[in-house]
Request: fold
Amino acid sequence: MVGIRIAGVAIALLCAHPLAAQEWQRLNDGELLTTLSGKSVAFDDRSNAYHSSGRLHETGARDLWGYWRVERGQLCHQMRGEQAWSCYRVSASWRDGLQLLRFRDDTGREQDGRIE
Reply:
């Protein structure tokens, strides 16, 4: 009986612990494509729609169009009028049933968003 009670407490603690929201898994090429293609990511100040065609639509303070692609484990995008592609390492986590994404550029700057 004590063993069952301890097991029950252990399960309750594991379920209540916010560890899952704190663990970030880096996404590989296939995971990036599956996670983003045809979906939108909401940030604090904007939303990015990743169309399956490779088009990217950013809405917020500005309404911009560009392109996105996945290469060497990174999400890259180029907005209209820009010469260079910007690339980010992307990690995923879950919190309260929402898939969260963390974008990190080459300088180490991070920005979090959520799949809509």
